[in-house]
TrEMBL record:
It is a multi-pass membrane protein. It is found in: Membrane. The chain crosses the membrane at residues 21-45, 152-174, 332-357, 363-385, 397-418. It comes from Trichuris muris (Mouse whipworm). One of its GO terms (molecular function) is outward rectifier potassium channel activity. Belongs to the two pore domain potassium channel (TC 1.A.1.8) family. One of its GO terms (biological process) is stabilization of membrane potential. InterPro entries: 2pore_dom_K_chnl, K_chnl_dom. Residues 114-174, 342-420 form the Potassium channel domain. This is Potassium channel domain-containing protein. The keyword Ion transport applies. Keywords: Ion channel, Ion transport, Membrane, Transmembrane, Transmembrane helix, Transport.
Amino acid sequence: MASRRRRSKVLRLTLLIKKGIAFLFSHIGLCALVVAYTMLGSVLFRAVEGPLEKEVRQLARDCRHQSVRRLWMITYEYNLYEEEWIDKVFDELLNFKRMLLRAVWKGYDARDYEENVQWTFSGAFLYSLSVITTIGYGNIACRTYFGKAATIGYAIIGIPLMLLFLTNIGDILAKMFRFLYRRAYRLKVEMSLWQKRRKVERLRQLASSAACEGVVLSRTPSPRPHQQHKVKRIHTFTAKDCQPPESYINDVRMAPRSSSLSEDQLGAVRQQRVRVKRTAMYDFAPNCLISLPQHVMRHVDLEGMRLEALIQRYEFEEFVLRESMEEKLNRVLVPLWLVLLTMLAYLSVGAVLFAIWERWDLLDSFYFCFVSLATIGFGDLFPGASMRDDGSAQEKLVITSLYLLFGMALIAMCFNLAQEEVVSKVVRLVSKLGFWKSESFEGG
């Protein structure tokens, strides 16, 4: 019984460890792991390098005070002997310079106030982030042997972890960006479908009014001998009242397209009184006294056929667009210009932010953001140089760290999206040139 209980406990512990490892390498787990690892590094490096920084600053203050006292003693003893005074002061200045260089080598940055130390929690956090992201500004570095050894071990574990995080989070952001772009594309297609439906409805209304309304002229004998008839009044007719013969329909269908009337002309025919000269006319039905002239009726029927053809064309386009929408959405790719525009917008936001915080020029701020996110890290510009006298300097350093972390993830997303677009264009180009087909044949 005891052995079974031990086995069950071991199995539970093993299962729990497996679940914990699986969670750590999930999307949320990787984000939490990177943040926790960076915070661990900030605590470690602050504990290792913080005391040395205070010690070096104290040493620099002591050297300065000692040099001032010695200069006063030299002046008090040799004030009447100019050459001896100059020699003594020169020697003392050389001694002070040596001590100052030694302090600078140990990390002295010409600041003596304890509240402006570099190795605060936020400063160490930024240093840890610059190590695992391989930016490496160089403005702050470990001076102790233990700190240097800790940096090596920290980077060996942190850099692969950061690469895994960037790959994972970049894939997630790419999927989200692709989803939003496809939603916008779907909205665009649905707007196009809605416009086509509106056009179809308008054309149907126009065709219905054109088919159900017409103009019929009654005739009376004319008193003049050279005129047989004259127009007396206008009647309305429907398609049931007057049906054209089959020969006339065929005649209209064979009519050229250039003889169509506009909507304004059709409205004028329906609404205004028409006076016509004597010409050949068709009698469509016994109850119709006289129809419109032949060329007008041809225009009216031809326009109705045109409207019906337009309706069918728009309905067919709507059907094809709706049927192929899902397939197009699955194959749609985020364009390269949109990826570059997103990255440019992020760099511009950072440039404005650091121009305000660091009092840099806008070009210098943009240069710093680009160099940092590209992991070049020259070190000529680095964050925090102008923040130390600010009360909210530590909060700004944390925001800077988050900006760099999210920016690296955004770059990974842009690479993911750009890779799809470039590969798609290359495959399309190769297939057009015929190389793809020839290579496939050779491989077969």
